[in-house]
Amino acid sequence: MNNTDTIKLTQFAHGAGCGCKIAPQVLSEILQGQTASSFASLLVGNDSNDDAAVMDLGNGTAIISTADFFMPIVDDAFAFGQVAAANAISDVYAMGGKPLMALGLLGWPVDKLPASVAAEVIAGARSICEQASIPLSGGHSIDTPEPMFGLSVTGVVATNNIKRNNTAQAGDILLLTKPIGVGIMTTAAKRGLLLPEHEAPMLKQLTSLNSFGEKLAEISGVHAVTDVTGFGIIGHLCEMADGSGLSAELQYGNLPVIDGVRHYLQQRIVPDATYRNWNAYSKQVGFGKGVNVMEAFQLLPDPQTNGGLLIAVHPNSLEELTEAMHSAGLEYFAKPIGQFMAKQDKTILVEP
After folding, report:
1. What is the mean pLDDT of residues 154-169?
2. Who's near 251: CB < 8 A, 6+ residues apart?
3. Region of poorest pLDDT, from 22-36, 112-126, 215-229, 261-275
4. 62: closest CA among 129, 157, 140?
5. Are the C-beta atoms of residues 312 and 240 closer than 8 Å to each other?
6. How far apart are CA 234 and CA 301, in angstroms?
7. pLDDT at residue 2, rounded to an integer
8. What is d(CA 34, CA 243) in angstroms, rounded to the nearest whole number?
């Protein structure tokens, strides 16, 4: 292969982006019997389904540590590096943290793809790290059957300002900072069916940093945060609700949806991981009258890559949060999409 412009990375991988995640039931089986860490200074560890680990430094600050990698979700190597980097850094932002540095994690089929293409992947990642004002300062690489890339990211947060995904309270209002549906769009792209006018919005979503998470650390009324990734909004909201001992009402009509996605739903373009996610969470979900259940089935479990921040905020702090969102250029998303409530028979109640 001499012309790297003709190489389509997604054709070398069986999965794509956060849709590569191991199925929720299988992951639960893998982690079954794992005991919580006995380190007193480990504030967030493997005893929960949170976005990153957090270690108390004992001086009012804590270190955030996370790792995330996956197979190509887009064909262009530079863009793949950008997407993978933005997605990995998002876990630090989801904890209310400030990223400090990153290490690259590269798996590359050296007998199938030129080294120059891998160099483009790393260059894309470095461009996103520069946007986040952190160095891409090293990493590790191995020879793998399929291309994969991601980052290990270190961040910092004030101990009192850590945002977790299992600390929501009944009555908290839900907001989401990005639209859903990008898994459907990337599946259309992999099949060669993405319309030209939808490519730029898709890439913008995939590569936009969730840096607003750092601002959330300053709002005490924000009780819980997570980023929506491979399990879809329904999966990550279930994790949030279950971890908090609550249920949530989701207002389907208020959910932001990426422009153009319904065009592809009419063609029944759905990622394979959508079915996996739905099988994992469907028993926890109930639908109110008037909800387009068939469409909801395709959108709610849609695996997101570098999806938005799902925020639980006390009603008294909603105005402060929405003002911050307006200042950050997120005014379109300053509209509640649901609310937490006391535990019900169903974990998620989807209303029109």
Report:
1. 97
2. 336, 337, 338, 351, 352
3. 22-36
4. 157
5. yes
6. 6
7. 36
8. 17
Is 279:28 a contact under the CB 8 Å cutoff? no
The predicted-structure confidence for 295-316, as pLDDT tens digits, reads as follows 999 999 999 999 999 999 999 9
Domains 4-161 and 173-351 share a fold: no
Which residues carry out catalysis?
A: 18
Q: Give residue limits of the domains in the chain.
A: 4-161, 173-351
**20 pLDDT exceeds 90?**
no
Classify domain 4-161 by CATH number: 3.30.1330.10
- For 173-351, CATH gives 3.90.650.10
Distance CA 195, CA 259 (A): 12
C-beta separation of 82 from 127 below 8 A: yes
Q: Which of 37-51, 109-123, 265-279, 328-342 has the lowest mean pLDDT?
A: 37-51
The pLDDT score that the predictor gives to residue 14 is: 76
